[in-house]
User: What shape does this take?
Amino acid sequence: MKRSRSSEENTKMAPKQKQEIPITIAMSSEILFKKEESSSSMSPGPAFSFVKALKAVNARLTNLRPESQELFQVKLICDKSTDLSDQFITTHDLKDIITSMTVSEEHLIEKLQENKTILYLSAPPGTRVPEVMKGGVAAAVMLTPENTMEVPETPLRVVFDGDAVIFSDESELVYQKKQLKGFLDNEREKVNEPLPKGPFKDFLEALGRLQKKFKEKEKFKEKDCPIRTYLVTSRNAGNAGYRALNTLKTWGLEIDEAYFLNGSPKGPLLKLIGPHIFFDDQMRHVQTVMNEGVVACHVKY
Assistant: This one.
C-alpha cells in the first residue's frame, strides 16, 4: 500500500513564497517641504502630493489585504535638525508612511542599497543621481514647477518616458549617432528584439505587483485600482512603438496607457493626465511638462 505523506512532509515540499518587503522610496526632505522665508513654518514641496497618493494606496491595500507587508515606505533624508520635519510630518498625518533617515553624502549609496530602496528622489542639483543609478537604484532629480497644478489624491498616476527610463538608452544612442533615419532603421531591424532594461524597470514592476493584488479581487473593475501607469514617449506608433510594447510584454509587464507622440511636445498630454510624478531623461521634455504645472523628474542617465 502506498503511504500517504504526512502534513509535515507536505509542508516541507510546498514551494516557498517570496517574502513581502516594503517598497522603499527615499527622498530629500527639501522636495517634501519648503521652509518659509518669513517664518519657521513649512509649506508642501513638489513631492507632497506624490507622498499623499502613496499613503492613499497603502490605505486601500491594508483594507484589501491586512496581512500584506508590501506597502510603500518613504525614507526622508534629513539634515541634522529634524524638529521642523517631524512637525510637518505630524501636521499632515504622514507618520505611518514616513521615517526620517540621516545619512552623509559619503554613505548615501550604501544606505540606499542597505534599505533595499527602489527609488531615490533628489532635490536639485542632484549630483549624486548618476552614481546612485550605477549602484542599482532608480534615481532622478525632482524639480518644482512655477505654478504646480492641483491633482486628485487618487488614483496614484505615474508617467514614464521610455528610452533611458523604463528601457536602456541603447536606441537613444543610435539616434544621437545616426539621427532619425538611423534610429528608424534600427527599430525596424530589431522590432521583435526586446530592449534592454532601463533604471526604472524595477519600479514599474513593483507598481504592477500592487496593481495585480487589486485585479485579483473578485468583481474587480479597472476604475477601482488606485494605481495607474503611463508610457509617454517620443517614439512613433510604428516599429518603434511596437518594439516598446513588445518589450513590456516579454517582461510580463503591463502599462495602463501608452502614448507615442512621434516627437511632439509632451506638456499638453501630461496636463490632461495630471500625474503625481513624471520621469524623463531629456531636460527639454521635463521643462515643457513643468510649464504646464506638472511635477517632473529629470533622470540623469
Summary: DSSP finds eleven helices and twelve strands in the chain. Confidence is low (pLDDT under 50) at residues 1-15. The longest helix spans residues 170-189. Residues 107 and 206 are 25 Å apart (CA to CA).
